[in-house]
Sequence to fold (520 residues):
Amino acid sequence: MNAPPYGALTKPARGSRGGAIALIVIGSIVALITIGLLAGGGFLMWADRTQRDANGYLTSSSTRLATSAYAIASTDVTVASGAPGWYVPTGGLGSVRIVATANSATPLFIGIASSADVQRYLDGVQYAQLQGFTGMREFMGVRVGPTYVMHGGGAPASPASQSIWRAQVSGSGTQSLTWTVSGGHWGVVLMNADGSQNVTADVSVGATAPFLFSLALGLLIGGGVALVVAGALLFGGIAMSRSGTPGPSQPWAPQPPPPGIPAAPSVGAAYMPPPPPPAGLSYPLRIEGRLDATPSRWLWLVKWILLIPHFIVLAFLGLAAFVLTVIAFFAILFTGRYPRSIFDFNVGVLRWWWRVSYYGYSALGTDHYPPFTFDAAADYPATLDIPHPERLSRGLVLVKWWLLAIPHYIVIAALVGGTAVAVRGATTYAAPYTGLITILVIIAAFAVLFTGRYPRGIFDLVMGLNRWVFRVLTYVMLLRDEYPPFRLDLGGDETSGAPSFASPAPAPPPPLGQPRPSGV
Fold:
């Protein structure tokens, strides 16, 4: 096969683009695992270092246990013992401490025995089997405590007379039972020491968990390794997506030939680059949409099914964009620059998201199925582009998304919808609600269904609302420093006459033989 001449325009191989998306998706999955590992390791390390009492126990809050039966029992507490000795040595599971304070003058009894022995002892006895030890809490205004399963029967034999207990304690007032944990199936019984009915006590449970530090350290190390792998996969996917392809907002340009080799003939007719952004933008984001002249009356009813593949891909791409935005945050903080490869990827994700939104239920502006690509598509009726900034403020990056953007978050909550949360006392109420964009699009959908036309006024308003949302996304993703304006720029085209935010192109040199202008 003959190689193309120097300077010829070539398009990237399809396999390269598919492999790039695969790497980005896998990197996003690994990044999600990384977040879980680091969060879990950090939480366990925090608990191990800060939540132990003076005796080294991690202890639950006190919970009231009460029953009219003869005993409260947890009959099947499983302690896994299959871990290798090098990981959990003998005694490495630590100790358990149960502290119970009687609410009456009757002495208490606490005992631990094998699950089989406890079940034999309680066979034919009326007792409450403890299902959950989660403490008292408020739920919808009602206090909810531990749950029980009641077993019928009669009175038990005196618990102190039994020889089944591996650890036991009894007496008046507060009783503390300490047991060195070993593998197996165990049962815990709380009773009145005389075997009488109406058992009531405030109980807390603690454990030393000596393996907790090693587990936390292992999770943190694993998270660090996963972070490196995720970064390599994401950057590899970004590099593959850019290989052979220019930046998202620039056409492919021929490479100059080596000295002595003639340039290839023009092939401009073989490829039409995407149109450049307008000369004047009111904000450094160009987001446009071209409304279909004759939309389908019924296709909008099934678009949610047709878009499922895009939703799956965008879920992973959104995760990757989040991870890369965090990396870009530190790059801007220390260098004042947004890494170009990360910038192009994040703009590509926004462009992909906008095409899906425009096809779907954020606009329903076209029936042309969106392509699976990060690049600008000149023939697609929805376009998005953001010029790359030369410099960004190191100070603004610290306050953009959590402070300065708060007023816009309030507006976007009304435009996009979400979940309304109300708190009354200790009770929390939540209710989902629909945003203004969705309401307008539904009205337009029914207009299309019955008339075959999309109302132009609604379309212009929907475009303005979406433009507002994506401007805020551009700001909080740190892509630009310009604060989003509080206004609606209606219509499908960016028509403002404001100064351009794009870098001016250099003037071409004068023809040979003509004097250069003064100052050049």
